[in-house]
Amino acid sequence: MPNNPTDLKYSESHEWVKVVGDEAALGVTAYAVEHLGDMVYAEFPDAGTVLNAGDIAGTLESVKAAADLFTPVGGAVTARNEAVMDDPALLNKDAYGSWLLKLTLSDPSQLDKLMDAAAYDAYEASQ
Amino acid sequence: MEALIFELSCPGRIGHSLPEIDTDDYAAAIPAELRRESLDLPELSELDVMRHFVRLSQLNYSIDSGFYPLGSCTMKYNPKINEDAAGLPGFYHLHPMQPEYEIQGALQIQYELQEMLKALAGMDACTLQPAAGAHGEFTGMALVRAYHRSRGDTDRNLVLIPDSAHGTNPATCTSLGMTVISLKTGADGNVDMAVLERALADNQGKVAGMMITVPSTLGQFEPNIVKIADLLHAAGALLYCDGANMNAMVGEIRPGDLGVDVLHINLHKTFTTPHGGGGPGSGPVACKANLAPFLPTPIVAREGDRYVMQTPEHTIGKVRSFWGNFGMHIRAYTYIRQQGASGLKEVSRDAVLNANYIRTQLQDTIPPAHDRPCMHEVVLTGKRLKQETGVKTLDVVKRLMDYGYHAPTIYFPLIVEECMLIEPTETESRETMDGFIAAMKAIVAEAHSDPDLVKTAPHNTQLGRLDEVTAARDPKLRWLPSDPRDAESNWGSGRNPNQVSKLEPLNRD
Amino acid sequence: MVYSAHTPVVRDEMLRAIGVQNIEELYVDVPAGKINAPINLPAPLSEPELIAEIRRISAQSADVLTHPAFLGAGAYNHFVPAAIRFIQQRGEFQTAYTPYQPELSQGTLQAIYEFQTLICELTGMDVTNAGMYDGSTSVAEAALMATVINRRKRIVVSDALHPHSIDVLRTYADGHKIEIIATANPLDADLSDVSAVIVQQPDFFGRIADLRSAAEKIHAAGALFILVYYPIALGLLKSPGEYDADIAVGEGQPLGSGVNFGGPYNGLMSCKNQYVRSMPGRIVGQTKDTNGQRGYVLTLQTREQHIRREKATSNICTNSALIALGSTVYMCMMGKAGLKRVAELSYNRAHYLAEQVAKIPGYKLHFSEPFFNEFVVEAPIAPADLNKRLWDEAGIIGGYDVSDRVPNGWLLCATEMTTKAQIEQLVALLQRYAEEK
User: Fold this and answer.
1) Which in B94, B127, C303, C333 has the greatest CB count within 10 A?
2) Quick check: A41 contacting B, CB < 8 Å?
């Protein structure tokens, strides 16, 4: 059985969200990273970009796969993780230690639609 | 390994023989604002160049060197007579802009090839313009779009594509601004008719057509193909056939008889024009009469005893410069004239025979994805092997290299886990296939007894597994003397590492 | 069937090993009545009959080696060293597939890497892909690439591009709702909200222009500069890189291929570093194997159709590898001195031809701008009639008829293959025709 961090919320497209005040950090789960393999490229929108829940919020690439990053919550981008863009292998080392984007939440109620760790563990096991 | 050509360069060395300037030197007056300041190209003798590229060729695996069962690619023998034909000066040195009266021979080849491909495909019209299979897809789907537009049916922008399709099919639709609906394949590997009917019902008046590969990328003939065509036609849509797998049908089954409206034909597969390490190919498109007015310009027609170029009435325009990959047209023409209808029928029959031979002889070793007769290629799945030994399909095919075989296609089609797609083709003998089958059995035995041996393969090739991750993370796409990664190079220094290294014993396996 | 490996006995044994009585049993899924289709083709020919037939047909065409030829217009009869075909016809290169298994394809991969480097050197650009179908499709793909990079939908193109390139560009643009604006003076056009400006140098009429200020103007409008070049001309003329082009494309045929009735050719495509992830086509990169040895692989493949499927920006797979190999060998044999010599000879002989033709009564150079190895002359009679007469009376392949663009316009070309004697023969005939009047 997987054992994902309990302080995060999860989406069905394998993103995680960590909320601090009205700001959310967005990342991808260890399951997603393992599925993609060795990451070779990552690109995210500039600070200031306004995203709606469900929008594409970046691109992640391994040697033989490319995946869009979707944001499960809407808001304005306040920061993107330049370190991951410079060295995408950081994701392979620690998916939960590597946030990708930070945004100001436009609608905190969107968080309610996300899974908690226990639900995501079960969801991941069913994939 | 072989040095880079730049590292062999010697200042002042000459590898060409060109005329002297025998007019006034007008070029000396080119003003500085138009003239380039410097141009660095390597300086080598003709022998330097020959040896370099002959040595490089020896690092390649090819059909001429051994069994190449690369599924979906039809790696059959490429007859050498084709090369003699294509190299004749009346073809190779014919200029594409010469007037019609100077190029009758070339037009005759194109006209007759169009006619022969129409006969083999069961179609009414043909263009030789597309330069490759994907380019044929682009052309064929552009015809479909033009057909609907001409009828004022402008809402039809959706294309149905089975999820087993080649990646080019969806990419083609995108490059035409059309939208893809992916159809989930049924458990038996065929089109799920309920899924198809629902997609048509949900999108009435919006479906332009369906792109289907026959036989499918799973190597199976679609049993409902005629019904699929009928359903599409009843819905006002057209059926496009990806002709990548024509080698299973040539001389035996005409796609036009199955209800297909338009298809492309890969001359570099069924019709033996060489793959060339990645091209050039050629992807003629054949279609029914209702699509003929939209064909790209020009097509070749016959008027009395003359051959002429014509522009179809409602042409989609040009898809490439000049008149298609003519050199490939000659090769395919030569092959078809040599085989005739009876020879081509045997081609497809032997292709099917050989694939089924491999399927049945390996079924207890690595099972087929679907337990039924296949057409010209078979999909095996290494799922069980991976569960039992941890050895993946990728490892198995890398180990095949140690046994002297090229890898089959792997991880395609995407819908079969740990798959390998094996296409022996009709030109391979039973002895060759028996050798391959024995190698596969030996590798599966190794996977159980010594999995690491397989996981770290290949061991006998000039290079081991290559680091594709570093190549993609930190791309190095050209040689550059100032790049620290090229620090050991000898650009222009006059030192020739190939000659220097002769002091060491050669070890080229 | 020719090239069969099976005897009737072997076929029977294989059917038994498979567990069927006859081959038809393997066609269980084919609908009834759809196999055994009657197919009407000419009867098969043996190899000696076949080569005789093909030779007979090829003799119905007149090639540019046997006949004096003054035809360019996008395909150029340059010298093809004998060594090129020997290398291209090695089975190891010719009968290999796309190098997806790098351990068995280092020959093709290293040759492509060398090709990429040589084209970068020639064009002064940062990165080059492994090749495209031809020059015209490279132009179209470059335009689509620009629209992906800056998300604009208008392309301004010089109307002096090769007409086939403009036609292909229009065909490719159709599905993307991209507006193509063809104009005589693209740099004077309104460039607001324009994705890219496409200029050809030398242009279809052979003219060359000082493009040093072009990039600045185009970039100021937020557009990309796409320069279409003639690779031989770069032996003498400023490169796309020196003109600060963002994407450089060209027809690779002049680099070591015969004119081959229009194909197969190879499309050349290069760009600046920052755009490499938007570039279509295959790219080879250098890496190391498990033992630390230098080697080559296809890389940045996530741009391509086999991974990105409907999200790919192009559906191209083919890279005309064998033609690119020929160009690689060509550039290595020519070296920097040879390529310059070919360019000088082409330039000089074309200028000698122009000077001589312009002296003939009734003939006049149409343009006053500098040209490379091709130029438009206004003839006293229809160029089609002139070509026919030269062919019938002297076996000369004349120039290209551009009377749809220039009244009685005749586009003449010379290369290092056009000898001074051939030029003098043509000039003497034109002189004689002029005197008849």
Assistant:
1) B127
2) yes
Query: Which of A38, A39, A41 to mutate: most B Cβ within 10 Å?
Result: A38
User: C262 with B103: CB under 8 angstroms?
Assistant: no
At C410 the pLDDT is: 98
Q: CB atoms < 10 A from the CB of B310, how many? A: 13
Q: Give the distance between the most distant pair of CA atoms in chain A.
A: 39
Q: What is the pLDDT of residue B493?
A: 42
Looking at beta carbons, which residues of chain C come within 8 Å of A62?
Answer: 302
**Is B16 within 8 Å of C144 when comparing Cβ atoms?**
no
Q: Give the 3-state secondary structure of B438-462.
A: HHHHHHHHHHHHCHHHHHCCCCCCC
Q: Strand locations in C7-144, DSSP E?
A: 127-128
Name the H helices within B368-427.
383-389, 393-402
CB B158 within 8 A of CB B181: yes
Q: Is C407 exposed, middle or buried (0-12, 13-18, 19+ CB in 10 A)?
A: exposed
Q: Which two tokens stand for residue C186?
A: 């693209």
Which two structure tokens, joined as six digits, stand for C425?
């023969």
Q: What are B119-173's pLDDT values in tens digits?
A: 999 999 999 999 999 999 999 999 999 999 999 999 999 999 999 998 899 999 9
| Residue A38 forms contact with B (CB below 8 Å) | yes
Query: How do strand C196-201 and strand C224-229 relate by DSSP bridges?
Result: parallel
Work out the mean pLDDT of chain C and round it to a whole number.
Answer: 96
* Integer Cα distance of C175 and C198 in angstroms: 20
What's the CA gap between A50 and B192, in Å, rounded?
A: 41
Determine the pLDDT at residue B500.
40
Hey, of B102, B169, B214, B434, which one would you mutate to test binding to chain C, going by the most C CBs within 10 A of its CB?
B102
Interface partners of chain C (CB pairs < 8 Å, 3 or more) are A, B
Q: Which residues of C touch A58 (CB under 8 A)?
A: none
Q: Which of A48-57, B201-210, B425-434, B481-490 has the lowest mean pLDDT?
A: B481-490
B292 has a pLDDT exceeding 80: yes
Question: Are B292 and B125 within 8 A, CB to CB?
Answer: yes
Cis preceding linkage at C380, omega within 30: no
Residue with tokens 């059309």: B178
**A66 contacts on C by Cβ (under 8 Å):** 302, 307-308, 311
Residue B498 has pLDDT above 80, yes or no: no
Q: B407, B463 in Cβ contact below 8 A? A: no
State percent of chain B over pLDDT 90.
Answer: 91
Q: What contacts C372, CB < 8 A, 6 or more positions away?
A: C202, C206, C208, C230, C233, C237, C346, C347, C350
- Cβ distance B131 to C297 less than 8 Å, yes or no, reads no
Q: List strands edge to edge, sheet with C196-201.
A: C127-128, C267-271, C247-251, C224-229, C196-201, C154-158, C179-183
A40 chain-B contacts, CB cut-off 8 A: 469, 472-473
Residues of chain C with pLDDT under 70: 437
Taking the CA of residue B33 and the nearest CA in chain C, the distance in Å comes to 7
- Does residue B31 have a cis bond before it (omega within 30 degrees)? no
Nearest to B412 by CA among B403, B423, B421: B421
Length of chain A: 127
Per-residue model confidence as pLDDT tens digits over C213-244: 999 999 999 999 999 999 999 999 999 999 99
Distance CA B243, CA B233 (A): 20
Interface residue B92 vs chain C (CB under 8 A) = yes
Dihedral-angle region of residue B251 (phi above 0 means left; psi in -120 to 50 means alpha; beta otherwise): left
pTM for the whole thing? 0.95
* Chain C neighbors of B344, CB-CB under 8 A: 1, 39, 41
